[in-house]
Amino acid sequence: MSRGSIKEVRLITTLLRGTQYKMERLRQLSTTPSTSYILQKLEDVVHEMGLKIKQHEENIKFLKTQKNGLDNSILDMQVALGKYQTESESGPENEELSHVLSEQETIEQILRYEKSAAGIWCQLKTRHGTQASHLPLTKDVLGIVAMLGKVDDDNLSRLLSDYLGLETMLAIVCKTYDGIKALETYDKEGYINKTSGFHGLGSSIGRSLDGRFLVICVENLRPYGGEFIADDPQRRLDILKPRLPNGESPPGFLGFAVNMVSIDSVNLYCATSSGYGLRETLFYNLFSRLHVYRTRADMLQALPCIRDGAISLDGGIIKHNNVFVLGKREVDLKFPKSFAKSNLPQDYFEIERQIKEMKWKKERTVEDMQREQALLDHARFNFGIKKEEYLKFLAQNSSYTRQLQAGGERLTPIS
Superkingdom of the source (predicted)? Predict the structure, then answer.
């Protein structure tokens, strides 16, 4: 190697050593391990929060699309129902008229108890119709026990009412416990606030609420856990028939009371947020496996297989634990007479069921949207705080770098 080449190599080596020293000095002064670590962590957190915000926004967009699809399907099905109803208007009307009169008769019976919560509710419904169900106080109320079921036979209707008793027949039925809390409020001393809840509502329509009243929360009722009778539009419960010790069916057994109550299609499905209907919640808890027999003699003969009570069409009543009810019937209030809409096609009931189910899904979708929106707002708030923290740290580090530059070190700001 020539003397000139050796000098050139030594010069390049000296320059490289100087550059490495400056770079190492830069890392020591401006990007110490702790500073670099904190900066990287802040960047990772901000990035992760940004991804969460994007995910929540995409979830809300998907849920909105789902809700719009349900709205369109519900509208199409309501149009189809309207077509069926129009076509059926020319059919026989005697049965429908009988149904309306029977329902009106039950309402009039309830209104006689004018100082009861049920009487106030019926009065409100009579005056304001469907708008009464949209009031903040009553929007969670499904109705009154006596109005939520219908029975074909007038005698059986009175017997079932007598078995339940007046207080239960007049009970208010709510979807959730929050709805129950809205019906009655209390002051700091624990006394009833007469200006709010059902007490205030009664005063506003000139009917003061007097005495106690029952309220049933269907959301908290333990539902029937078995199967339903296949292809039954009324979704009757598939309960095993009773058997005597000899294995035979008891003579005169007509069925289970819970299956002898007809329920409007609107309450057959999704009466609760969990998707249960009134038969497997409300009426199963009221009647359980209550037997219905033709006569008292049949009922007494079937005692070995009666567990949850029984009634007979000639007035016999056995409560739980073999408690016999004797004496004269006292309850005049009864369930309305059922109306089967026999002049409507079977598709009508299926469409009604689908509409109810879709409305239930829509309610759940709206709740999911509200939850996602709350999560999105929270994520954006946290993102703003962490982004400000990141920018502040970056600015402080840049200021420190400029100070070093002013001190004679030539540094490059951190990117």
Answer: Eukaryota
> What distance in Å separates the CA atoms of residue 333 and residue 338, rounded to the nearest whole number?
15
SS3 (DSSP) at 291: strand
Grade residue 206 by pLDDT with cuts at 50, 70 and 90. confident
pLDDT (tens digit per residue) in 262-286: 998 778 877 788 888 999 999 999 9
Residues 310, 260 contacting (CB under 8 angstroms): no
More confidently predicted of 339 and 377: 377
Give the number of other CB atoms < 10 A from CB of residue 97. 11
How do residues 160-177 score in pLDDT, each as one tens digit?
999 999 999 999 999 988
* 41, burial (CB in 10 Å: exposed 0-12, middle 13-18, buried 19+): exposed
pLDDT at 132: 60
Q: The whole model's pTM is what?
A: 0.61
Query: What are the φ and ψ backbone dihedral angles of 84, each rounded to 5 degrees?
Result: -60, -40
Q: What is the pLDDT, as a whole number, of residue 259?
A: 93
Is residue 387 a contact partner of residue 46, using CB atoms and an 8 Å limit? yes
- Looking at residue 318, the DSSP 8-state letter turns out to be E
Is there a contact between 285 and 222 (Cβ–Cβ < 8 Å)? yes
Q: Torsion angle of alpha carbons 197, 201, 202, 208, nearest 10°?
A: 50
**Over 195-255, what HEC string results?**
CCHHHHHHHHCCCCCCCCCCEEEHHHCCCCCCCECCCCCCCCECCCCCCCCCCCCCCCEEE
Q: Alpha carbon 49 to chain centroid distance?
A: 31
> CA-CA distance, 256 to 237, in Å (whole number)?
9
CB-neighbour burial class of residue 169 (10 A; exposed 0-12, middle 13-18, buried 19+): buried
Q: What is the percent of the chain where pLDDT is above 70?
A: 75
Q: What are phi and psi of 402, to 5 degrees?
A: -65, -35
Which among 38, 44, 43 has a CA at the least distance from the CA of 397? 38
C-beta atoms surrounding 238 within 10 Å: 13
Confidence band for 402, pLDDT divided at 50, 70 and 90: low
β-strand partners of 317: 311, 325
Q: How far is CA 111 from CA 126, 205, 307, 362, in A?
A: 10, 13, 35, 35
* One-letter amino acid of 358: M
Task: Tokens for 94, please give them.
Answer: 């005697």
